[in-house]
Amino acid sequence: MGPHCHFEIRDTKTEKVLNELLFGLPIPDNVPPTIVRLAMYDRNKSTYSQSPALFGLKQLNARLNDGVGQGKYTIAQNIIDVHSDKISFGISANDKQSGSNNPNGIYEAIIYLDGLPLSTFQLDSISYAETRYVNAMVDYKTKASGGPYFQHLSRLPGYPQGVYKDINGDGVITLTDANIHQVKIVVKDANGNTSVLEFKIKKDSVAAPMPANPLSSSTNQKEFMPNYVNVFENENLQIYLPATTLYDSVSFTHSEKKSVSPDSYSDVYTILSGLIPAQDYFTIRIKANKTVNEQTTDKILIKRTWRGKNEVVKVTREGDWYSAKFNAFGDFELVADDAPPVITINFKDNANLSHSHNIVITPKDNNEAIENFRAALDGKWLMFSNDKGRNYIYTFDEKCPAGQHELKVSVQDEAGNTTQKIVHFTR
Q1: Domain with residues 342-426, CATH architecture
Q2: Nearest Cα to 248, choosing from 175, 152, 176, 113?
Q3: Does the pTM exceed 0.90?
């Protein structure tokens, strides 16, 4: 919400941010990355319709070789029995620098099968436009469910190559026989410190299912695919997903229930799950189930709810249909919002603030959606910072000299409801 400083090295032709640690900065580092866990996925189905098989690791050594740290890991069992002919792996890993206990992300990981490199990811550069793809690089569903971070060692089908580089395939392993195969995962940091995880796999002749996920348990499903436009329509609900929305296939599920809110103008529609990420904005269209009068038309929103958190978006009206765009799934309903925000200020009108250090303003809205905030001191705009919560804070400086002052605060919510509050104080 105000000026701040970044330390970045950019390619000015592309505006990509380059990894600063590749430029010889004098930061000592001979600590190899730590590999914590291994995850295996059945790639005959969506990564979102399963829970991965998890494997604990054993660290065999950690040593220095010519000043470069090296670590070696294996799994607890000798061989992983695989119950699918198509699998991929993910790892939970972190990296530290010499003299620091702060865990950082890893720079590079390469997966090999029988000595042949399959794919790699390398964080040498990234553009701001690519940053949301982190939701495809990690196992989003496991993390959003309260589990650890796992980084995919293969590119999901809806993720362009980006930080991944396909070498011999995209990192998904296809097993055509029941022989024992050697898997090696090499993890590096930008200083060349390296850790290696090695283990063996063997396709089991008895097909056993991977752990099921309740998201895919309902019937009457339609498969939504990445890189394709996906559409669902019925008499009250329409959903349009651009081809860039999904990272992996997903069995489309939806349900509806009556709303208990007096401000609701539709049923509540559950669209997929908030455990499934979306890269792009998609369109939700909902048909009102009761008459919307002219006074209320400009106050209609589509409200998204997931695990107690709300998001509201102003709609576009087309007859009885109301549409808005979102980039996350969850529960959706039409609501009317004619309640203006409430403004709370940390002093009363005509207060003496000679011994105060700041002004704290807390706007509150029934839908937790503050669209605009503006404060003016004696008719001139005054900059407030935001604490990434509900408070807007101004710390007294030369913009507020000694004397009497008038502070005018205006707050607007997503529906356009506006509240204004004027207070006076003395410095």
Answers
A1: Sandwich (2.60)
A2: 152
A3: no
